[in-house]
Design goal:
GO terms for molecular function: ATP binding; ATP hydrolysis activity. With 304 residues, the protein is α/β, with parallel strands linked by helices. 38% of the residues lie in helices and 26% in strands. It binds adenosine-5'-triphosphate (ATP).
């Protein structure tokens, strides 16, 4: 077990940022930490990263206690904060070499490592540009490279996809899957649920400083959990009538489509077969809310 959090609490004066969070994250897996704004995700990650001390509860990172063994924990983690400063006057390569020096990585090794990481995050072409000229997305990628410089076993990433364009997000997904495949423990906080569903093995849902549930994101979960579907038909009026007659909850959405509430892929497949059997010409039938979104909305209802 590589991250273990048990009953952790942290207040800032009167503000109870984390009331009680418990979770586990395994090596070889991507674990997503999801929750509304202000639910305590960043505070928790800061405690894991040795940068805040919990008021109560227990944390183990790679078997070590961040409170009593911070130096050993820092050597094993890669930490990517949500928005970070870089030294604007340095080039991208120099930023990474400076971080490598802080980790006391030998200069030769630091140069090879920097080149490898620039390649991983697709910043080779910008290696000699000043960090100040980077776009937000490019800075995020530099932040990821920075977090990887010491070849950590545990990665703590706070909103790594924010500011990334679609291609960079897909690439980030591949990088995270690759890191998990190397046996690393990846804990990533994010709001982008549809993407997390594709990259994460497990999601921990938090709200108001409490961990509510841990959801395994395997095929069964996706098959069972997808709860709403969009139907595009050449016979929209007949479709509406049919859904009313068959008591299927539905509403009109943009693009002339109809959204229906049907729990699980089995039931959706049956609905589609019934529509086609009754002569309704369906030209599109797609999930409109992913299983993770449905689970998140159900778990955080009334807890915003
Ligand atoms: N240093 C601090 N002093 C006072 N309050 C704080 C401090 N840090 C966080 N908080 C409060 O604690 C709560 C949890 O904040 P936190 O940043 O952990 O949430 P989050 O889930 O990461 O939010 P987001 O998704 O918006 O990044 C918020 O109400 C926040 O205002």
């Amino acid at each position: 077990m590589s991250i273990e959090v048990q009953g952790v609490r942290r207040a800032f004066g009167d503000v109870l940022a984390v009331e009680s969070i418990s979770l586990r994250a395994e090596p070889g897996e991507v674990t997503a930490l999801i929750g509304p704004n202000g639910s305590g995700k960043t505070t928790l990650l800061l405690m894991l990263a040795t940068l805040l001390v919990p008021d109560q509860g227990q944390i183990r990172v790679d078997g070590l206690d961040p409170v009593t063994q911070p130096t050993q924990v820092r050597a094993r983690i890669g930490w990517m904060p949500d928005g970070f400063g870089t030294w604007d006057a340095l080039t991208v390569r120099e930023v990474l070499l400076t971080i490598a020096a802080a980790y006391r990585i030998a200069p030769d090794r630091a140069r090879t490592r920097t080149d490898e990481l620039l390649h991983t995050v697709h910043l080779e072409d910008l290696a000699d540009r000043r960090a100040r000229v980077l776009s937000r997305g490019q800075k995020q990628r530099l932040g990821l490279a920075r977090a990887l410089i010491n070849d950590p076993t545990v990665l703590l990433l706070d909103e790594p996809a924010s500011g990334l364009d679609p291609r960079s997000r897909i690439e980030l997904r591949d990088v995270l899957r690759g890191l998990a495949a190397q046996g690393k423990t990846v804990l990533v906080s994010s709001h982008i649920l549809t993407e997390l569903q594709e990259v994460a093995d497990r999601a921990v849902i938090v709200a108001r400083g409490r961990s509510l549930e841990t959801q395994s994101l395997d095929g069964d979960f996706v098959a069972m959990g997808t709860a709403s579907w969009r139907i595009d038909s050449l016979d929209p009026d007949r479709l509406t009538g049919w859904l009313v007659d068959h008591h299927v909850p539905a509403r009109k959405v943009g693009g002339g489509q109809t959204e229906v509430e049907v729990a699980g892929e089995e039931n959706a497949a049956r609905l589609l077969a019934d529509l086609v059997r009754d002569g309704i010409r369906v030209i599109g039938f797609t999930p409109s809310q992913g299983a993770l979104e449905s689970a998140y909305l159900a778990a955080t209802e009334d807890r915003q």
